[in-house]
Amino acid sequence: MNKKIFIVLLISIIVFCVGVITLTTIKQEDTRKNQLIIGLDDSFPPYGYRDENNEIVGLDIDLAKAVGEKLGMEVKFQPISWASKEQELNSGNIDCIWNGFAYNAEREKIMTLSRKYLKGEMYFMLKGDNKISSQEELVGKKIGVQSGSVQEADLENSQLGKQVEIIPYSDFLTACMDLEIGGIDAVYSSSIYGNYIIESKNKDYKTIPSYNISTASGSVIAFKLGNEELKEKIENAMLELEKEGKIDEISIKWLGEPMVKLQEE
After folding, report:
1. CA pair distance 239, 93, nearest whole angstrom
2. What are the tens digits of pLDDT across the range 49-89?
3. Quick check: 50 and 10 in contact, CB under 8 A?
4. Are 167 and 143 in contact (CB under 8 A)?
5. At 124, phi and psi to the nearest 5?
6. What whole-number distance in Å separates Cα of residue 239 and Cα of residue 134?
7. Which domains does the chain have, with CATH numbers?
8. What is the greatest pairwise CA distance in the chain?
9. Which residues of 115-138 are buried (b: 16+ CB within 10 A; e: fewer)?
10. Beta sheet of 74-79, edge-to-edge order
């Protein structure tokens, strides 16, 4: 083959390949702009968990789907390791964390957080036949928490945390399983989660209140630090859904009462 013809063909092939790659990239970027990828722990009822058909369902799942429909965006749920949630968010693998994510001041320093939309207390769950009846009696005991959770951080930083053995688990469900077989004495968790487990699973658990431990003050949606645009889009969609009664409908479905409301800033 003539060398000149070969060079022309080679250049044509290169130009064609670059064009294909460019078009593919543009198509992927356009598709990504219309997607909302949500990071979550898929074993955290009632916020988000897998049902008997292995489908991800829950309070925050329904809220996110309603927001996606309102915004005309495709919502995808991406299970992540809760211990590495910040890295997932900062790398762009997910657009937000929406899964019973508790607000505290430390998280606000490294993420952009939505307004609070659900308030729950923190307490200890124990087996129903446990004789312990107060936080003071937990001294020297084993307390289960979810690894990477605000409950873990708060308990570690509390006075009680210095007097107990803190056992981290990949998720709260696993902690509760260990509680039932006697591997730990209590689980430190949100009352929203605890009440749902006790009522929906008919668990023989007792609860005792906690004090001087929690720094959390309600559930929020977390975004990459500085992503105010997406935060405002989702908040505005939620406000519209509130006016339409959709938020109350979802809240009653999962919590039995209209507890979800986007708080004023």
Report:
1. 27
2. 999 999 999 999 999 999 999 999 999 999 999 889 999 99
3. no
4. yes
5. -105, 135
6. 40
7. 34-119+219-255 (3.40.190.10), 122-209 (3.40.190.10)
8. 92
9. bbbbbbebbbbbbeebebeebeeb
10. 74-79, 35-40, 96-102, 219-224, 111-113
Which amino acid belongs to residue 48?
G
Integer angstrom CA distances of residue 232 from 27, 113, 190, 227: 26, 10, 27, 9
**pLDDT in single tens digits along all 265 residues of the chain:** 556 665 656 566 665 554 545 444 334 444 457 899 999 999 999 999 999 999 999 999 999 999 999 999 999 999 999 889 999 999 999 999 999 999 999 999 999 999 999 998 999 999 999 999 999 999 999 999 999 999 999 999 999 999 999 999 999 999 999 999 999 999 999 999 999 999 998 999 999 999 999 998 899 999 999 999 999 999 999 999 999 999 999 999 999 999 999 987 6
SS3 readout for 177-194: HHHHCCCCCEEEEEHHHH
Confirm if 140 and 162 have CB atoms less than 8 A apart.
no
Cα(2)–Cα(180) distance, integer angstroms = 80
- How far is it, in rounded angstroms, from Cα 127 to Cα 186? 8
